[in-house]
Write a structure and sequence with these properties.
Helix content: 55-70%
CATH architecture: Orthogonal Bundle
Radius of gyration: 18 Å
Order of helices and strands: HHHHHH
Strand content: under 5%
Shape: globular
CATH superfamily: Cytochrome c-like domain
Structural class: mainly alpha
Length: 117
């Protein structure tokens, strides 16, 4: 096989892998969500979270700060909240320090988009 063919194939595989990773890894997001599940199991339902205003479900007692936040949950607002809940909504009650890695948050949000439409 000519070296040019090998180089072209290797470049194509490298680019395809990068594009797939840039789009996120839902399986990794699922693993990250499993770490969240212990606390999230007692929190508000995440079903239908995308497009929902923060603090609007009647069956959960939200902090006044979250109710007043005016946030509508989108991938962008969830990313900011998951990165640093206290920075996104000061005085909220979520006992979580945040997820500093942008890639981890992207994977988690991708998984959530697939499961909690």
């Amino acid at each position: 096989m000519p070296i040019r063919t090998i180089a072209t194939a290797a470049t194509a595989l490298f680019l395809a892998a990068g594009i797939a990773r840039a789009q996120g890894d839902a399986k990794h997001g699922q693993k990250l969500f499993e770490e969240c599940h212990a606390c999230q199991g007692v929190g508000p339902s995440l079903h239908g979270v995308f497009g929902r205003r923060a603090g609007e479900l009647d069956d959960f007692r939200y902090s006044p700060a979250l109710k007043r936040s005016g946030i509508t949950w989108t991938p962008k607002t969830l990313d900011a909240y998951i990165a640093d809940p206290q920075k996104a909504v000061p005085a909220n009650r979520m006992p979580y320090a945040g997820m500093p890695e942008a890639r981890d948050r992207a994977d988690l949000i991708l998984y959530m988009q697939q499961v909690f439409r």
